[in-house]
Specification:
Layout: H1 7-16, E1 21-25, E2 29-30, H2 70-73, H3 76-84, E3 87-90, E4 97-102, H4 105-114, E5 119-122, E6 127-132, E7 138-142, E8 145-148, E9 154-155, H5 169-176, H6 205-220, H7 226-241, H8 249-261, H9 266-280
Antiparallel strand pairs: 1-2, 1-3, 3-9, 4-6, 4-8, 5-6, 7-8
Helix pairs in contact: 6-7, 6-8, 7-9
Length: about 280
C-alpha cells in the first residue's frame, strides 16, 4: 500500500470542502484509542451519534474522530498521528455520502449491470462507487461488496471520475436482502427450554429483541480484542436468556453473523458459544 504524500496537507484541503477526515496508519486502520479512552473508559464511544461527543483531543474512536475542523487537524495529538499516517480516511455518512466498496473485478462486473452509474474511484484491487445520500453501513452484502456510510470510514483515494448520482434503492436493498453468512451448528442453539412454551419470563418479547440488538451492536462496534468481545457478548446473552428457552436459531444466527462481519471464523463463533454455555453450565 503506497502512502499518501503529505497526508495532513491533503486532509486540510479535503476538510475545507466539508468532508470529515481522519488519519489511517499502516494496514489502512485507524489509530488506537488513547489510554483515557481505552475500552471505552471515557464513556463516549457507545453514545456517539456524531463526531465530537468524547472530549478527548486525540485521534480516538475511529470514524467518530473524523473532523472538518482545521484547528483539530493541526493540533498536537493529531500532528503526531499525521507524521505516522500512510493515508487519509473520511466518514462518508457525515459527508452525506455512501460508498459501495467493490473489492475485485467480479464485484465490479456485477455493479455495472446491477447499479446505476455514479462517481467512481479506483482502489488497489477494485473500485469505490460513491452516491449522494446516507444509509446504514453493512459489510459483505454480497461477495466482494461492502457498503460504507454512517458509522464507518472509507479510504480517500482522490476525487474520482463521473457524475455523482443519488443513492438508489438498489443499494439500499442490498442491506435489506442480505442473507445470513453463517448458520451455527444445530447444537449451538440447543439451549434448555423451560416448561410453559419457552416464552421469555423476564419482561416482554421486546426485551429479548433489544438484548439481541444491543449484543449485535456491541460486537460490530468493537475495534479491538474482537474474539474476547464476541465471547463476553455470547456469555452475557446466555446468562440472561440461556435458561428460559426464548432463544431461537434465528437469534443465534444474528449473533454469529455479527461476529463474522468482524472477521471471526464460523468455527470460532461456535467455539465461543459452546465455551460460554459450558461456563454457565448450560
Amino acid at each position: 500500500m503506497s502512502a499518501t504524500p503529505n497526508p495532513q496537507h491533503a486532509a486540510l484541503n479535503l476538510a475545507a470542502s466539508g468532508v470529515p477526515v481522519l488519519p489511517l496508519r499502516r494496514g489502512k486502520v485507524p489509530f488506537g484509542n488513547c489510554p483515557a479512552c481505552a475500552d471505552n473508559a471515557c464513556g463516549g464511544r457507545p453514545n456517539m451519534k456524531t463526531p465530537g461527543t468524547c472530549d478527548c483531543p486525540g485521534v480516538c474512536h475511529a470514524w467518530a474522530a473524523a473532523t472538518t475542523d482545521p484547528a483539530v487537524i493541526v493540533s498536537s495529538p493529531w500532528a503526531e498521528a499525521w507524521q505516522r499516517a500512510v493515508c487519509i480516511a473520511y466518514h462518508p455518512g457525515a459527508a452525506r455520502l455512501t460508498v459501495v466498496d467493490l473489492d475485485d473485478a467480479e464485484a465490479i462486473a456485477w455493479a455495472r449491470t446491477a447499479l446505476p452509474a455514479t462517481r467512481t474511484v479506483a482502489t488497489t484491487r477494485g473500485e469505490h462507487w460513491i452516491y449522494r445520500g446516507t444509509m446504514t453501513s453493512h459489510n459483505a452484502v454480497r461477495p466482494g461488496v461492502d457498503i460504507k456510510s454512517s458509522m464507518s470510514y472509507a479510504r480517500y483515494l482522490g476525487p474520482g471520475t463521473g457524475h455523482m448520482a443519488d443513492l438508489p434503492d438498489a443499494v439500499r436493498a442490498l442491506a435489506v436482502k442480505k442473507p445470513p453468512t453463517v448458520r451455527p451448528t444445530p447444537h449451538a442453539a440447543a439451549v434448555p427450554v423451560v416448561p410453559g412454551g419457552g416464552e421469555c419470563p423476564h419482561r416482554t418479547p421486546a426485551y429479548l429483541e433489544r438484548g439481541i440488538a444491543m449484543a449485535e451492536q456491541r460486537i460490530t462496534e468493537a475495534r479491538s480484542t474482537i474474539h474476547a468481545t464476541v465471547y463476553r457478548t455470547f456469555l452475557a446473552v446466555l446468562s440472561r436468556h440461556g435458561r428460559c428457552g426464548c432463544l431461537t436459531e434465528a437469534h443465534v444466527v444474528r449473533l454469529f453473523t455479527a461476529a463474522q462481519s468482524k472477521g471471526e471464523k464460523a468455527r470460532h463463533c461456535t467455539d465461543a458459544w459452546n465455551n460460554a454455555r459450558t461456563t454457565l453450565g448450560l
